[in-house]
Each structure stands twice: as C-alpha cells, then as structure tokens.
Amino acid sequence: MASVGALKFLLYLGLWLCNFLPQCQGKQNNKYENKHPFIKNASTFQIPPSISTTSTNNAYDYIIVGGGTAGCPLAATLSKNFSVLLLERGGVPFTNSNVTFLRNFHISLADTSPTSASQYFSSTDGVHNARARILGGGSSINAGFYTRASQRFIEKVGWDANLVNESYQWVEKRIVHHPKFSPYQDAVKESLLDSGVSPFNGFTYDHIYGTKVGGTIFDKFGRRHTTAELLASGNPDKLTVLVYATVQKIVFDHKGEKPKAVGVIFKDENGRQHEAILGNDRHSEVIVCSGAIGSPQLLMLSGIGPKAELQNLNITVVHDNPFVGKGMVDNPMNTVFVPFSRPVNQSLIQTVGITKLGVYIEASSGFSQSNDSIHCHHGMLSAEIGQLSTIPPKQRSKEAIQAFRDNKRDIPIEAFKGGFILSKVASAWSAGKLRLNNTSAEDNPIVTFNYFSHPYDLQRCVEGIRLATKVVQSQHLTNYTLSDRKTIEKLLNLSVKANVNLIPKHPNDTESLEQFCKDTVITIWHYHGGCHVGKVVSNDYKVLGVDKLRVVDGSTFTESPGANPQATVMMMGRYMGLKILSETLGNLAGV
C-alpha cells in the first residue's frame, strides 16, 4: 500500500483521546449498479447461458481472483475479447465516503468491522498492519502516491520496456492526476535539496535520483480514483464482477499429466457457497491477483505449497512446493515528527527524495479535518495502533495501548497537528515467511517479515534517520513550520512516555540510532513476496507444477518497485492482459 504510516501515527495520537464513537464507516448504497451494471453482489451469481466464447457453455474464459490493484486492469483488458469473471471479497469503493475523499482516507484503515475496506493483521514481529478488502484493492485505501518503477527493476523482471510504457500510460490517462501541491510539501522539497538530495527533477512519474514531485490518484477536489474505475474500460457484455465473493479454493482436475485448474469455489455475502467454472478452451485460466498476503494463502488453501504444512491442516496436496509463502518482505519505515506552530493543512505524499543511500524520504502533514475523523474512536484493533512507534513492536500490547491512551487524555488534539518526515528502506534484504493459520479463507495467515534481520537494512535505516533529522532541521522547514529542534524535543518528551528518544540527541551515535530503528519500526504497506518468479511461478507468471493457473500481483516481486509500488502493480495488470491477449490471439487481439 502507499506511504501513509507516519501520518497514521499522528492520527492515532489525536484519535485515541476521544471516548465516544460516531458512525465511522462510510455511508454506502447501491447506486453504482446504474453506472456499472456488470458489478453485482456475489449472492446474485448464476451460471449464465452460453457466456463463453469457448466450446463449453456455462463457463468463463478467465476467472480472476481479487479485484485489486492488478486484478481490475487485468479484467478490463481481457474482457475486450474474452468472458471474464472477477471475484472480489470486499465491497465497492464508489459510494463509501471514507474511501472516496482524501479528508477521510485513514478511517477505512481504522475501521475493523467485517465490512471494512481494510482487514487488520499483525505480523509475528509485532508490527500492526492492514490489507485491502474492497474493489480497487490497495488503491482504495492508500495515500494515493503514484510513481513508476526504475528502469533497473523493469530490466530485472524481464518485461518489454515499450509495452511497459504503453501500459503505464493507459493507467495514467484514466486515473492519475497532478497533485495540488501544498506549502508544506514545497518546504520539504527545498529542505531535501538543502540536505543534498539533488537535483530537483520537477514533476515526473519516472524514478530518478534526486528530489521530485510525483503523481496522485486524488484529483484536485480531493476525490480518489481507484483501479475499480478502470473496469469501465472493459467490455460490459463480457465482464462480470462479483463483490463480497470470498474464494475458498481453486478446483483442479487431476486426470492429465499435471493437475489442471478448472474453476473456483467461493462464498457470497450470505455465506452460501458457489462454484464458478472455466471453459475447456486451451487458453482458459484462473488468475490469482489477491496480493502478497492473499495469493500465497489461496495457493496453500488449494493444495499448492509445502507438503508437511498442508498435511498438518488436512489439506489435500495438489503440488508440493516448499517456496510458496517464502521470501516475504515488508520495507521498514521510521519517522520523525515535525510540529507546527501555525495552522496545518492535510497533505499526503507528494514529494519524494530518491537517494543513493538506499532510502526514500517522503513527507505528510495534518490529519483529516472532518469532524468524523477527529472524533472517531477507532477501537482496540485500529490500524493506527500499528503506528504507535514509540513502543517497541512486541510491547504494543492491549495494556500498553490503554496506558498510552490514559496518559494522553489531557493533551489537546491541536498539540499533535503537525507533519512527519518518513524514511523508508528501499529494496529491503530482510525476509520472512507466510504460513496458514487455519483452513479459513476469511482469516489472516501467520506472517513474519523479520525486520532488520539483515544488517544492511539496519545500516540504511540509520542513514535514513540521519537524513530525515537533517531535513527537519533545515531552515526551509523551520521557517515554514515556525518551529525549531528544541520545540520538537519538548513536544515529543511531553507526548511520548517511552524509553525511546524520537529524535536522537546525538545523530552520530550509530548504536543508539540502530536501537531507534528497531524500536520504532512501522509498516509502509509495501509488503511483497510469497510467490516468487522461478520458485512458485514461471517468467510468464504461470504457477509451476499445475496447468491453467497464474499469479499476477506483487507477491511475485523480490523487491518493491520504485518509491511506491502501486503504479507498477496497476501497470502489471494491464501489461499481462495485453501479453495474454497477444499470446492467444496474435494480431487479432486489437488492443
């Protein structure tokens, strides 16, 4: 997901001061059905007559599991020529005000109800996290920052550069905007340049060393544009989208040399079970686009994964692959708080410093200005708890949260209105794994990321905190915020009761900065891995050991592309759709 971690810590401080609970879930209705008639609730599912262009009636050419950042552009592209069924476990973003409007963007992350746009989970490292559960995936709940991958990344994964560029442009034309640049972001830009992160590359989608302004999926009115809108570019006569459809497992035919995917079993919003089937044509496939958590989880629930682990849960083994769920990486983030002595407006990620130190520096300011946002009590399992970065991860217990809340009750909300400088470790080397918790597709698997287990990540975090501190102390930033370093320390000492100096007094003390990194690590929602190319899928993303099954999403990545992955995952959906059409139809594809 996009860079919202630091701002969410700020939100947490203010929101936990309140004792009452207004309506914190966005109002929803079904008016979207008028504009998007191909989107329906899963309970309406009926196998349509002769929908397929294949030799088998009552079947789909492609079944896509996961209507997220990759799944939506993929479904739209394939539907130009083939019948497509897109299954999404969450609802729609169009009518949910907490998803749609920038001013409320964090509330969905904090909503822990069963119908929330996000699903809370915590890794075994003790870092609280969230995964999307809504049509549009991460693009429906993130901070909206849009920036392309580096040329090195494109070459590393072996993609066609021309088709990549065409696919990026297809996305950008439809849902990407220039940001409404805020004064705070401008001050951060100047501070980055003053701190040596140069040159200034202006507004660009490209990944270039130096400081730049990137794109956003929020328009000038603060309205979010998700990948769900890309579905409108598909063929409505060949596209069926079911929301609240939770896929339980992939169904296989074992008659041939290798198991062959023939369909999926899913539950609707009422708990009723359905089976969707593929046509018999050679090109028909199930394509999993459920993200770095959902895709390896679904493969294992379907019998593809480490044999011993599957047998322990009485799952029939379809294909023994010990690499499913391995190589899970979450880019660690640490933040430095920037207090304001002047009114502060909300701004999400717009400016980024792409350094040669192996870190990215970004910034955010303010929290939602709406009454619902300020007064919403988000509950014990709020995603904001994950941003309580002043308590070491494994000490973020229920009791610690309550003590924190009690101690902060008398501090005015205004004291916490400020900004953050974010430092993210790029291309993290520390890796963990994912394993099933049980056989329920609704429950989260058990995930370990092993933050800073590799010393190179810790080294880069230290460099990032040094740079972030330098940016905070830049004259450009202090002139804008009307604050200085002393004010920072005073506010943090007042508001944080923990054995951590949020801004180290001795930046050259590597040992203390290393401890700071470990104790204050939070997520930036850019986790990836679990279905790596060459180990779980082939170079064209076909699952090894079985037929008619692919995985197309960030679970195949060994590193997060660029300063933010969402642009590349969107592009990947379009790119693979075009590749599949070309492979199947050649010049007849016509897209």
Automatic annotation (TrEMBL):
InterPro entries referenced in this protein's UniProt entry, alphabetically: FAD/NAD-bd_sf, GMC_Oxidoreductase-Related, GMC_OxRdtase, GMC_OxRdtase_N, GMC_OxRtase_C
Chain residues that bind FAD: E88, R89, V247, W525, H526, G554, P565, Q566
Molecular function GO terms recorded: flavin adenine dinucleotide binding; oxidoreductase activity, acting on CH-OH group of donors
Gene3D superfamilies in the cross-refs: 3.30.410.40, FAD/NAD(P)-binding domain
Cofactor dependency: FAD
Coiled-coil residue windows: none
One Pfam family in the UniProt entry: GMC_oxred_N
Disulfide bonds: C461-C517
Domain annotation Glucose-methanol-choline oxidoreductase N-terminal: ranges: 132-155, 291-305
Keywords: Disulfide bond, FAD, Flavoprotein, Signal
Secretion signal, residue range per the UniProt entry: 1-26
Domain of life: Eukaryota
Family: Belongs to the GMC oxidoreductase family.
Record protein name field: Glucose-methanol-choline oxidoreductase N-terminal domain-containing protein
Natural source organism: Lupinus luteus (European yellow lupine)
Lineage: Eukaryota, Viridiplantae, Streptophyta, Embryophyta, Tracheophyta
